[in-house]
C-alpha cells in the first residue's frame, strides 16, 4: 500500500508503550478516546487510559515490547481505520520470551491542524466477536 | 453487549442492499465515506459508492441477501467502530444458494443532530491483511 503518515504516528506510540513513557503516549489519544483493555473491558478518556497502561505494564512484568507488522489504512475524510498486525513481545520472571500477534483495529481522527489522534484503540480486532 | 442504536441503522442499511434500494442506502453514508469494494479496490464518496453497489448487485446476479450476526460497538465520543458478523447469501443462475460469512469493520460518525453516518465500510475486516 501507499505510505500513510499514520505509520510514523503508530510507530512512535508503540515506542512510547515499550519505553513506558505513558505521559508522551497520552498525546497520541483524543480526549474522548476509548481503549479496549481486554474483551469486555474498556477505558475511556486519557485518565482511564493512562491507568490502564500502568496496569498493562505491571501485568507484563515491565517487559512489553510492541512491534508493527503489515498495515492497511482506509481513510474516509478526516477519519481513518487502520488494520494492523501488532506483535507483543513479553518476557516472564524466568527470562522466557513470548510473542503474541494480533490483527488490531485502530480508528484515528485528523484534527483541524492536521494532527491524527487515536479515538478507538482495539488491538483485538475482529477477534472480539469470538471472545464475547 | 448493551443495545446500541447502530444496530437498527445497520439492519436498515442491509435491508436497503437486499432490496437494491441504493438511493435509500446512500442516506446511511457520510459524503466523504469510503467503501472497500474488495481488497485493493475502494470507492470514495456517494457517487462512487452508488456505482459500486450497482456493480456488486450485478456480480451477485441480483440475488444478494445481507444478514447480521453478532455485533460489538466500541465508541469514542462521536465515533464508533462496529465489529460485526455479516452473512452474505447469494444464489447463482442454477438456483444454488451460497453463504459467505465475514467479520466486518464499520466506522460511523455521529453528526451534530445525533444521526449516525457510515464513514468507512470495510466488510473484509482484518482479513485485508492476508489479502494484500
Explain this structure.
Two copies of one chain form a homodimer. Helix content of chain A is 27%, strand content 45%. Chain A is α+β, with helices and mostly antiparallel strands and 132 residues long. The first copy, chain A, has a single domain (6-124), classed as Nuclear Transport Factor 2, Chain: A, CATH 3.10.450.50. In chain A, strands 2-1-6-5-4-3 form a six-stranded mixed β-sheet, covered by helices on one side. The radius of gyration of chain A is 14 Å and the shape is globular. Chain A starts with 5 loop residues before the first helix and ends with a helix. At the A-B interface, strand 1, strand 3, strand 4, strand 5 and strand 6 of A face strand 1, strand 3, strand 4, strand 5 and strand 6 of B.
Structural class of chain A: alpha+beta
CATH topology assignment of chain A: Nuclear Transport Factor 2, Chain: A
The strand line-up of the biggest sheet of chain A is 2-1-6-5-4-3
Largest sheet of chain A: 6 strands, mixed
Spatial extent as radius of gyration of chain A: 14 Å
Amino acid at each position: 500500500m501507499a505510505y500513510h503518515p499514520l505509520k510514523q504516528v503508530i510507530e512512535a506510540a508503540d515506542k512510547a508503550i515499550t519505553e513506558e513513557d505513558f505521559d508522551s503516549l497520552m498525546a497520541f489519544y483524543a480526549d474522548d478516546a476509548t481503549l479496549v483493555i481486554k474483551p469486555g473491558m474498556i477505558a475511556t478518556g486519557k485518565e482511564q487510559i493512562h491507568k490502564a497502561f500502568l496496569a498493562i505494564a505491571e501485568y507484563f512484568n515491565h517487559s512489553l515490547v510492541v512491534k508493527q507488522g503489515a498495515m492497511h489504512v482506509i481513510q474516509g475524510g478526516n477519519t481513518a481505520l487502520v488494520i494492523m498486525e501488532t506483535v507483543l513481545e513479553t518476557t516472564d520472571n524466568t527470562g522466557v520470551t513470548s510473542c503474541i500477534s494480533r490483527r488490531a483495529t485502530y480508528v484515528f481522527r485528523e484534527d483541524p491542524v492536521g494532527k491524527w489522534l487515536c479515538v478507538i484503540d482495539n488491538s483485538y480486532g475482529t477477534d472480539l466477536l469470538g471472545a464475547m
